[in-house]
Amino acid sequence: MTHEQIQALAFEYVRGEVDEATRQEMQEHLRICESCRRYVEEVQSLEHLLMEAPRVSPPPSLRADILQQTVYARRRRFSWRWLPALVPVLAGLLLVFLFLGRGKQPLEATSVTVDLLSPEESAVLFPEDFVVIAAIYPSLPFEAEIWIDSVQVQDHILKGNGYLAVTDLPITPGYHDLWLIVRVPDAQFETRLERTFYILETEEARRP
Amino acid sequence: MALGVSLVLPNPRLAHQAHPLYNPRVMANEDLNQWFIEILKHNESRIFNLVYWQIGDYEEAKDLTQEIFLKVYKNLKKFRKESRVETWVYRIALNHIHSYLRKARHRKGMISWETLDGERTDVGTVDPPEARPEYLQLRQKIRELPDPFREVLLLFYFDEKSLQEISELLGIPVGTVKSRLNRARAMLKKALEDTP
Fold first, then answer.
1. CATH assignment of B131-196, among 1.10.10.10, 3.40.720.10, 3.50.50.60, 1.10.1280.10
2. How far is B183 from chain A, CA to nearest CA, in Å?
3. Residues 6 or more apart from A63 whose CB is under 8 A from it?
């Protein structure tokens, strides 16, 4: 082996990554060659330095800072420092509502949306269907009341993460009126939605 | 109030199985957030080290790591799962570090090189091990390596990635990784020897 070949393989040699035959060949060369031996020793100490180089701990606040700007960003958007500037506006709005006799209307926060997904008037449903009737965004904890034909539905309601669904509704075929009241306490939000929908009788009726 | 389309799901008794159709927007966001938290936990320290050993400034490394994870978060929806998510995160990190260093070098004329290369290790009142002279010098010399060589060296030694993993990360053949690594070691060895 030449000096150049030895030096090219020096790092792999000290890491034990050369095959047995090469290792023996290198050892023979190193026994007689002072300069290559010195080279391999230097390589050994650099390898050691690299292997032992300390890892740095990230600042403890790093993860929290990242999460604040990503996963929790939406909630952080509201800042109390704007409150003083908003007071006259809020007072004005309150007066307008009182003046219009609508003081008892629920507070509607614009940051929450409730999409009434189904049923629309043209939609036909089956009692056994699992039906998503509303999507609530963002997915904060919410309370919901469902009224069908002026009777509150107590069971058959499924509250998911950001959605509201009903299943196995015990109602007769035909047209029905649906009222939905959604409250999101965290956002001081309440809304009431109305829709008429049609319940079909049998599974067969669904197929043309 | 926005009106959505009718959404009637045919299988009624599987409500506990979170079908994305129930509400794609909300479900997807919840899942993405969970996923992002996992990614962050798993990679935070490693990405921070990757940045720190390339930049050399603790505070700057913190800012850069934050920016990298913001990019990851913003683009997580677009991630196509053609590669492992870790590979994708590392690619974002490496690209971000590249562009930072490019800009920093561009500014070199305007700011003192010492600021960029500053040996600030203000991580506490007690000197951390990486503040020891041999490591300061090592870091300095690693930072002076050309980008492709420095990258491979750091991924190999500091991240303990295999040649195969580095090849996937950088999208170059294993043979190229190996030769870059050898070259990087030789350059580093020479640079350290030349230092008085």
1. 1.10.10.10
2. 9
3. B40, B41, B44
